[in-house]
Design brief:
Length: about 160
């Protein structure tokens, strides 16, 4: 079962770079400097920020649906980065050495599948989850922190 991991589009967040620190603070956007790697996973580039790199931490509505599973949570984005366009069945290195939560949703945006596992199994878990014809799309989360990483669609 072929799939594509979908990163967030940088155009959604480009305006952060034009905002003053006061404007960022008023919108609960925290500008930080990455001080370890891994530790600041960017949802646009699907890469960990380099030590010393500027990142933004903010609440993002990653599941904007009309369902009880509508959800938002904290995410990081890197300054001046581009959206990672994943190839079919590609799993970016970002997911390495992390405990992953994979959530499957049906066409009514209802959660009908969930699993937690080490990254080394991610490709196989995505493929096997999509074997269920009721699964319309998936979300990848960092299981330890609960943060959203990316969505996954059938290729």
């Amino acid at each position: 079962m072929d799939f594509k991991i979908i990163a967030l589009d940088e155009e959604l967040f480009e305006h952060f770079q034009k905002m003053s620190d006061d404007e960022l603070e008023k919108q609960n956007i925290v500008k930080q400097i990455a001080d370890n790697k891994p530790g600041f996973p960017c949802r646009i580039s699907l890469q960990d920020a380099e030590i010393g790199e500027e990142v933004y931490l903010f609440n993002y509505e990653f599941h904007s649906v009309n369902s009880p599973y509508k959800a938002s949570g904290p995410i990081f984005t890197r300054k001046n980065t581009s959206q990672k366009i994943c190839e079919t069945n590609e799993v970016p290195e970002l997911f390495s050495a992390r405990l992953i939560s994979l959530r499957g949703y049906n066409s009514s945006q209802m959660l009908i599948s969930a699993d937690v596992f080490e990254e080394v199994e991610l490709k196989e878990k995505i493929q096997s989850t999509f074997e269920n014809p009721e699964i319309s799309y998936l979300h990848i989360h960092n299981a330890k922190f609960g943060c959203y990483f990316a969505s996954v669609k059938r290729a």
